[in-house]
Write a structure and sequence with these properties.
Elements (H helix, E strand, L loop, with lengths): L1 H28 L7 E8 L4 E7 L2 E4 L4 E4 L3 E8 L3 E8 L2 E3 L5 E5 L4 E9 L13 E4 L4 E5 L5 E2 L23 E3 L3 E4 L5 H11 L13 E2 L11 E2 L3 H15 L7 E2 L14 H5 L2 E2 L11 H9 L8 E4 L2 E4 L14 H7 L31 E7 L11 E2 L2 E3 L10 E4 L15 E4 L8 E2 L3 E2 L2
Parallel strand pairs: 1-9, 13-23, 21-26
Antiparallel strand pairs: 1-4, 2-3, 2-5, 5-8, 6-7, 6-9, 10-11, 11-14, 12-13, 14-27, 15-16, 17-18, 19-20, 21-24, 22-23, 24-25
Length: 444
């Protein structure tokens, strides 16, 4: 009997110890550190509009300040009163973000953000020198007028990511390039537009044929507003002809069988015919941009020297930065503000036009998807002298020979380095993949 009582006592003691251990363990799992937060102050400098702030976990508000966790993104929306426009932004007194209506960054400290507005009746200050100009034509395109004096190439005076010439773009030292005025789409071609033209083009009466149908974004699971991907260079030039014929008539189609045989290219499965395509640049139809057109549009800043280098009179974004970024590729906040890439894309494409636009009003020139250019590729973009006139290279179209075609801009799958404006790459014209799409150009 005593033995049984002793056993019961020991069992009860053991159970008590186990319960105590569980309670202690449970207490430990509930211990959590308080996240670090910062006060973000914001206001309108001088009135004539409103400023709202929104952050992860915080509903959009006009009440300042807001308290934001470190590492979270805060986004500001400026809304001008009738008759006014955004004049500029400052963050802790430093000018940022140009005249954009939206401003966002990742919070790492307490800051003060201000926006100011000005009357629409006040003409913008004209830039000094011949820096070119641009105009939003209201049809989803930006009309771009490069400097009449051309762009005088130069070697960068700053550090590039990587070695060699692979990140030096096309405006090289010793090369003077003149570009005719052109229009470029504000965004990459969304699947919705691609599919609309594709469905029209493949009707028997219209006679177009494609090698690939294209998909919504990364793998077909995206929205119709995400860029089309999985389309080859051949698909793209044929699609541009179809888009032209649908909107402007077949006579304005750019891509022809040859300079002498002006048959409009309509079949992307005829590889040799497509690869030998002649681009009739006198036509006003839709087309792929040339590489020089693409790079100029990605880099143009006019007379704004922020994170830029001067080429003649015009300032161009530094080669080591994303398009529209105000700092080089090492500055994650700036790269994330303008590009969907490996660090912020969540491994997928995003609707075209969500990121901050560049100085010309173009979105996603860096990141989201790589973009086909018309040009044949050579590691040295200056080798083809067929476009030389009076000491200038006029509207160049790339290498005189070779099988591959140029791609530019980086994508959702790449690191920041691959999304800078100087990086050049290429694929064969029949290649297609889930991070490659297009942007459309045309003559004004």
């Amino acid at each position: 009997m005593k033995t049984k009582e002793k056993g019961s006592t020991l069992l009860g003691f053991a159970v008590g110890l186990a319960l105590a251990a569980l309670m202690i363990a449970g207490c430990k799992t509930n211990v959590s550190s308080t996240p670090e937060t910062f006060a973000v102050t914001f206001s309108v400098d001088g009135g004539n509009g409103k400023l709202k702030a929104k952050a992860d976990g915080i509903t959009e508000t006009t009440e300042s300040p807001i308290t934001v966790e470190k590492g979270k993104t805060v986004t500001f929306t400026a809304t001008a009163d009738s008759g006014y426009r955004v004049k500029g932004w400052t963050c802790d007194g430093e000018a940022v973000n140009g005249t954009n209506a939206f401003y966002s960054f990742t919070v790492t400290k307490g800051v003060e953000v201000k926006v100011s507005f000005e009357s629409n009746s006040v003409p913008p200050t004209p830039p000094s020198g011949d820096v070119g100009s641009f105009e939003d034509t209201g049809d989803g395109f930006i009309k771009i007028s490069p400097p009449a004096a051309g762009i005088t190439g130069k070697d960068p005076t700053y550090t590039l990511p990587g070695t060699g010439d692979w990140g030096k773009g096309v405006f090289r030292a010793g090369r003077k390039v003149k570009l005719s005025p052109y229009k470029l789409g504000k965004t990459e071609v969304p699947y919705k537009l691609w599919k609309e033209v594709y469905d029209w083009a493949t009707q028997p009466a219209n006679g177009y044929k494609f090698a690939n149908a294209g998909v919504k974004g990364k793998d077909g699971s995206g929205t119709e507003e995400e860029p089309v991907t999985n389309v080859s260079w051949r698909d793209c030039i044929v699609w541009c002809n179809a888009y032209t014929q649908k909107i402007k008539g077949e006579g304005e189609c750019v891509y022809r069988k040859s300079k002498t045989d002006t048959t409009v290219l309509k079949d992307a499965t005829k590889g040799s015919e497509c690869d030998a395509a002649y681009a009739d640049m006198s036509k006003k139809g839709y087309r792929l941009p040339t590489e020089a057109e693409w790079e100029y549009a990605a880099r143009w800043q006019g007379s704004d020297n922020t994170n830029a280098e001067q080429y003649g009179d015009v300032w161009l974004t530094k080669l080591n930065s994303a398009s529209g970024a105000k700092a080089d590729w090492n500055n994650a906040d700036e790269t994330k503000a303008v590009a969907w890439y490996g660090d912020n894309s969540d491994s997928k494409t995003h609707p075209a036009g969500e990121k901050r636009k560049n100085a010309l009003g173009l979105h996603d020139m860096s990141g989201n998807v790589w973009e086909w250019c018309f040009d044949g590729y050579d590691s040295n973009p200056t080798v083809n002298d067929a476009y030389t006139s009076g000491g200038f290279v006029v509207d160049p179209q790339g290498a005189a020979s070779g099988d591959s075609r140029v791609i530019r801009g980086g994508s959702w799958i790449d690191n920041a380095l691959r999304c800078v404006v100087g990086i050049r790459d290429s694929f064969n014209p029949d290649f297609r993949i889930h991070f490659l799409g297009l942007r459309v150009a045309c003559r004004p």
